[in-house]
Design goal:
single chain; alpha/beta; three-stranded mixed beta sheet; 2 helices
Length: 107
């Protein structure tokens, strides 16, 4: 039993501005719940339940897991970072490269 995932991206184009990326980052950081100033003792401890013998027995019987292979190829991408998206003559940094990523898991 084996499974494979293959993704090929050809001539990928990404354009982003530093200001936009910082705005998006701030949005997600501010969306996270803020930690209380004085953490309570109860919140700092996590109660773990022991595994039932039936579940452990089923896991041992089902020890044959299918192998997984993930392959991603990115051909001729162009990534452009623009200083200001509202100006046509803004400074920009362009990066082009090729990438091949492969991950195999034999469990």
């Amino acid at each position: 039993d084996s499974r494979a995932v293959v993704a090929v991206l050809n001539q990928l184009y990404v354009c982003a501005s530093a200001g936009f990326l910082l705005t998006v980052a701030d949005f997600f950081i501010n969306a996270l719940p803020q930690s209380p100033t004085a953490p309570t003792e109860k919140a700092s401890h996590v109660q773990l339940k022991p595994a039932s013998p039936l579940k452990a027995k089923l896991e041992k019987e089902d020890s044959r897991k299918p192998s997984l292979s993930v392959t991603a190829s990115i051909m001729d991408p162009e990534i452009v970072f623009v200083a200001n998206l509202t100006k046509a003559d803004a400074l920009a940094l362009s990066a082009s490269f090729q990438c091949h990523f492969s991950l195999k898991s034999d469990s």
